[in-house]
Amino acid sequence: MPGLTVLAEQGRLAWALVQDIVPLWGARLLSTVVLALAFSLLYRLLRAGLRSLSKRVRAGPAWLHALDTALRLTCLTLFLITASSLYPLPSEISVTLLRVYLIILLLYFGWALLRSLLARASGHFALDASLALLTLNVARAVWIAVGLYLVFQQFGINLLPILGGLGIAGVALGFAAQDLLSNLISGITLLLDRPFTIGDWIRVGSWEGQVQRLTLRTTRLRTRDNEYISIPNSKVAGNDVVNLSAGGPLRVRSSLGVSYRADLDRGREVIMQVLQKEELVLSDPAPRVAVVELGESSVQLDLIYWIAQDSIARRPLIQQRVLEATKRTLDAAGIEIPFPQRVLHLENARVLQRSSPPDGEGEQPGR
Q1: What percent of the chain has a predicted confidence (pLDDT) above 90?
Q2: Is 214 exposed, middle or buried (0-12, 13-18, 19+ CB in 10 A)?
Q3: Where does the Mechanosensitive ion channel MscS C-terminal domain lie (predicted)?
């Protein structure tokens, strides 16, 4: 059959091609695997020696991590240069890989030095954590961009024309990523305007928590329930931001009602005793108890007191302790916290009494 003959001929050609390729490339691939294992073993031996040396000279963990990274990069580069000689690649590839290795090594240690200088400058100029984070992120982005440009240059690839060609595509992506760009712009605005800093307790809309991190895209809060919330910066910038920590001590209000029959002076006295005994309530500014409303069923009182800035995280707990102690103290003093109640006055009570049937009337016979 002609079809089977053609298929058999194609199979013989493919097998002949495999027989020609496998002896050549199989040996190269096997040599590459052997080299990878050898350099991996070399790296482990050198790392063990490096750790032993660091213990003798008492080098810090930062230096040990930096030297370990440099050692890993060196072994990887030597492996690539050695393995490239097994394949039909341009002769200058080894020199190119060596230049790339030196550039990456300089960029790595240069970034460590630059980061240290930025940290010192932030401390010298008393920059807050959020602005220092913005400076670090911008410097990192610029440093990475310079590194990519230098590395691609070694392979003869000029990124500038490519970036210029991406300008039109960038406009289209800009329309598609409006939310992302809005968050980035809002993040820069928040970092420059600084309505809060890292560590502050803030309230944004329905969220309340401690600022853990401020990036160019999100603001990250930790709530009192230890939940982490990432809020887009555009929502933070577009909402009213209440900073609970910026003013120092925080004023707290707790409300309760006492009976109209109660002695207000006596009630104020026993409540003040509770506030003075609570260790987390500040004595300066002094706490006070104020009548704020004459309600339908009770006289409404506000317990007004102050807590320290470092106690803001425990504000709900402090309020609970104050209210529980107040309830027990009022009960002991015989001061009632009334239930909602109404007094009903019937002006035509006699008319209602006359219109009501006498006892026994209106009942059905037989009952």
Answers
A1: 32
A2: buried
A3: 255-337
